[in-house]
Structure formats: C-alpha cells, structure tokens
Here is the input.
Amino acid sequence: MGLLSKKDTKLILDPLADDNPITIQVLGICSALAITAQLKPSIVMAISVIFVLGIGNVVISLMRNIIPSKIRIIVQLIVVATLVIIVDQVLKAFAYELSKELSVFIGLIITNCIIMGRFEAFALGNGPWRSFLDGVGNALGYGVILIIVGFFRELLGSGTLFGFKVLGDSVEKTGLYAIGYENNGFMVLPPMALIVVGIIIWIQRSRNKALIEEN
Amino acid sequence: MAINKDSNVYTIIFAVVMVVVVGTLLAGFASVLKPNIKANERYEKQQNILYAMGISENQGAGDVAFIPTDRVESEFAKYITKQLVIEGDKITENDQAYLIDIKKEATKAKKDGYVRKLPLFVGQKDGKELYVMPVRGKGLWDAIWGFVAVDKNMIVQGVFFDHKGETPGLGAEIKQRYFMDDFAGEQILDGAAFKGIKVAKGNNDPKNEIKDDFEVDAIAGATITGDGVSAMLKKDVAMYVSYFKNL
Here is the structure.
C-alpha cells in the first residue's frame, strides 16, 4: 500500500475528471469567467483556491465535532474569510501587481460555491486527512479548468502565453501574423470563457456517455 | 458531563473564542506583512507619477507598463528634481511629499481653518520641466485617482488614472492607453482663466485633434465615471492654478 489508499486516490482524481466542480457540478463559474483572460492570473487563482480549500477543509473537519450546528454556516464563512484575507495579504506583500489584477476576485473566493459546498458536503462529515485530499482534489479540478481556459483565451485572444509573444508580434507583423493571422479580440471578453467552458463540457460528455442525463 | 452543543451558552462561547482566535491570527499576519505591503504601495505611487510624466516601459500601442519595482526608486530620484508641498502661500520642499495621503488631506480640508497640504512633483524629462499633480475623486462605484503632468503653461503632457472598482470594460477603461493618451496636449487654462478638461460625450472631435477645446472624448457606457474624471480634474487641478500663475 502506498501513501494513498484506493479510496483516497479517488478523492483526488475524481474531481479532476468525472466529478469536476466546474464542468460537471457547474460551481465556481463566476470566477472562471472573470480571471481567465490570461494564463498567469488563472494559475495564481488556482493556487490560491487549492490553499484555501485544502486548509479550510482540514480546519472545518477538525472542528466538525465542536461546531454548534446553529452557527455552522457562519463558522464556515469565517474560516474561508480568514484564509482569504491571509492569501490577499501575502499576495499584496509579495506579488503586488498580481494582487491588484486579482483584487476583487481573491475576495470573491469567499463566495466561491465550491468552497462552501465542500465544507458542507464533505469536511463536516469526514476526518482531516480525507477532507484535505477532497479539498485539494476539488481545487485541482477547478484549477485545471481555469488553466485550460486561460491557456486558450490568452493564446487566441492576445497571441501570448505568460505575456510572451509566442505567435510573433502583432504590431510588427512577424511570425504567424506575417501570413495574415489576427488575434481574436472576442477571446479576451468574459462571454468567451463561458463558451470555452461549454466546449470543454461538450468534449467531456461526448467521451464519457455516463455523464449524460436521461430525459 | 456532556456538553449540550445546542445550548445558547455554548454557541455564544464558541463564537467568542473563535472571533478572538481569528482576530489574533489576522492581526499577527497583518503586522508581519505590513512593511512589505507599505513598500509596494510606495513603489506604485512612484511608478504612477513617473508614468504620468511619460517615463514608462511602454512598447506596444496598448501597453501600460511601469518602470519595474526594483528600479523605480532610483529612476524616481533621477527624474524628479523637486518635491514641493504647497500650503496656502507657503511652499516648502519635502522629499517625502509623494507620501502625503491626499484622501486624508481632502477630508481634513473640510474643517474650517485647515490649510490643505498639496504635493507637487517637479521633474525634468528631455530638458523640459514637468509638474505632476495628484488628483482624486469619485467614479461610479468607488474612488478614482490619478496623476496629471503639465508644463509651466499648464498644458497636459501626460496623465495616469486608476480606480478601485469601476465596471470592467466600461468605467475601468479610464486606465487604458486610448483614454489616457487623449489628454496629452490638452489645455487647462483659457488665457488666464481656469477651465479644466471635460470628458465629453457630445464631442465633435472623437480623434482628439483639437487640443484647445478643453474636451476629450468620453468612453461609451461610462458616463458617470467620465463625469467623475472631469470633476476630479476640475476640483483638484484648480487648487494648483495660483502656483502656476506665480511661476
């Protein structure tokens, strides 16, 4: 037996594919639309959510037997809010530009439905280790989609990746632009994120028929 | 003895303990990280002031690229020759003037008898003397602010605007190049009279070729933010006019 039993591995891997919080459960869409115009903020957001959800799940799980059920939701909110403020402060101290860019959305991690959803559905009923795995798994599932969407939106919308001009220079007309390629400005706008997420859902469902609901 | 977790006493004690723990934790974090955050805010101000003067790392047409933080302090020292604080008729030099919080000054100025401290940055660029003024006002949702660089006749040489929470794609566009670049060359004074610059919707000059109409073209869908920019320029820049008249 390795570090993770079969059941534990499932906790990490399921949310990456067949139980993905964005494409299957359709949670956390708002931030997925807002910050994926470029790859870098997508990755930072993914890391922040992994941190908040991983630690948050453990904290809630450790407290699960002492939390008064009457103020359960408030306690969860406080835990998320605390972690989010910590992330925000750390970003402000060490990645100021990025924190300005993400400003509102870091704060909005608090309202990310995935987090409260995992607290309620998993951490309140499971031990710390399993909760940690579940949190990291779900956050990874969320992050993977963010990064895929961010990759395509930055590449097709601005012709760059991490700010590097991978397709050539659109002003100087070098690389692909020399043969008439144009950036698709629509990719930079939020609606396109929804369409890209839609395409991912489409691909996923056409590959795994079990995901399609019967009518 | 088993604790009744549903009792009000337990709930209240739990809440109090939790608040204390969380509060301590956050206060700890805040005080540890504060020096770093303060430094970053200082760099940002210097970057913004330099940007308004036209000192930036802009390459492409839509870039808003500041001088990187590791160089900004030395560049700031190089280009800014004097930092002045204007208090009524009294003008003093103060190399910390850029740290004056103009939001606090504006609040204090509402009280009778308080003479507002106005920071002004004098810089040299390509042999030309530039004067950078901070401005601050209200947009649609929250604060907007910026820096306006003018020459000695109060003709705008460059601006930088930023905002706290304007609508992305609409009001937030005030920090885009196409909006900010329009201000360069605009006049603020009509002869000796102060006019300001209006962000105008019914502008006959969308390409902004006429520089003495005291107007720049507004952003569609961002009327209130645009009006905020006009108001902030009118209110805050006006305070400096007497300084320029005595120049």
Remarks:
- Chain B has a mean pLDDT of 87.
